[in-house]
Predict the structure.
Amino acid sequence: MEALKIIHGSSLLLVILVLLASALSSANARVHEHQFVVQAAKVKRLCKTHNTITVNGQFPGPTLEINNGDTLVVKVTNKARYNVTIHWHGVRQMRTGWADGPEFVTQCPIRPGGSYTYRFTIQGQEGTLWWHAHSSWLRATVYGALIIRPREGEPYPFPKPKCETPILLGEWWDTNPIDVLRQATRTGAAPNVSDAYTINGQPGDLYKCSSQDTTVVPIDSGETHLLRVINAALNQPLFFTVANHKLTVVGADASYLKPFTTNVLMLGPGQTTDVLITGDQPSSRYYMAARAYQSAQNAPFDNTTTTAILQYKSANHHAKGGPSIKPVMPQLPAYNDTNTVTAFSNKFRSPRKAEVPTEIDENLFFTVGLGLNKCPPNFRKRRCQGPNGTRFTASMNNVSFVLPRNISILQAHQLGVPNVFTTDFPANPPVKFDYTGNVSRSLWQPVPGTKVYKLKYGSRVQVVLQDTNIVTPEDHPIHLHGYDFYIVAEGFGNFNPKKDTAKFNLVDPPLRNTVAVPSNGWAVIRFVADNPGAWIMHCHLDVHINWGLAMVFLVENGVGKLQSIEPPPADLPLC
Ligand code: C2O
């Protein structure tokens, strides 16, 4: 009897303690309300004034700064002439899939004149993410940084930097990007390549009419700064480097890493990398620069270089009347330097032993790659301007993904609306072939479809992402919504389950939301399907989404109270 009382007493104490702790942490957590007005604004770039779609007239858009555990409430009002949605790239959106944003996947687009309020809470993510439009090619100019600091009073797992600067790498067209996409859709050819890359919206000194507005990042001798580098480019993986300075990588995609130093980063579109940089060089001016990593063969690409200036505060850069010190230009890897990319990605490790699923319930193998469709009989020649009179396409497991038009997949699933999608996305390629060899032309034409793959709540998933040599091999940045995944291995050629499983890192693999699948190679990712909803997985080269390089995981509700998606918000746009 006495013993029972003691147990009772101590468990009561425990309950009180838990309640107290959660009250304290929710007292710290804040709600941040923002208004995003999507609107055209005059933006001067490359000697011309453009009517650019922006958020609140800003390009790049506003930087959101919050702490882990905080809630964001963003009311988006569409004052542009295009449909729009906003995606919070990398935010896990636990049970709040309605706020994820990809059009026709989790919501209908916000029509011109309409609005929608995105509400979600950051749970256990720290570092750098970003937000961007997820409709047509609007994200060419509609994007911004989303900075998540540790909970208040909690430190970084590295010495506190003196300053923090987001470095948004972008891609700029001298014409309306929406028209570039429309033209490509009409002709079936690859879209025109961009005219410039940008750092925080500015192309920099090496472009015409741009040197006045080059982004300047001040630093002082001895200081250590945190650069939050984001590849927001539409279609181009990029190298990034700073002249004469070492970069210490401490995080990527809002997960920390075992720190390592490097001279150069490679980021696929969608990826972020947090680096520390120390002012340990002679007081002067140094370029930070980004240019293409181009793995596709015989494909035109934008080979220009964007720069910003790392400027020591003590540098005498404005000697009266005289010219400023000419910044030091760094060396960048060759455009096709895959070895540098491999060496860089091989250094990624989680800081400590990771909770990688070891038992696997769903063992999936997805090919990712391009294709060429024969010209349909009812099409005129001018609509088939791809190689040899074809039209470009792309697929995963030979399914070229088609978005629904009248309802989103998540709404259709929730309401039981039939004929919107089918649940037969294949777990394996329908035909096995030498993926990275010489692929028979009969395998170049995928089948269009809106197919999803169903996952039971809590299932442990492994996906082998296998690049193909169809049309050209290419480094595809594959992004999964609603999840972070462990990248347990990467390699070249065809994935071989007999040999390559030996290379799996199940101890400290990096946790990311976007994996750069090696060109003519493969990557293996693992995650636990603990977030119900409709989650698109796609190549983050936007033109490849348009061609169909995407699929959707439909994760079912679990049985527990906190294992179901929340009900849809009342203002969820209808089609
Ligand atoms: Cu950052 Cu679906 O994308």
The first helix runs from residue 2 to 28.
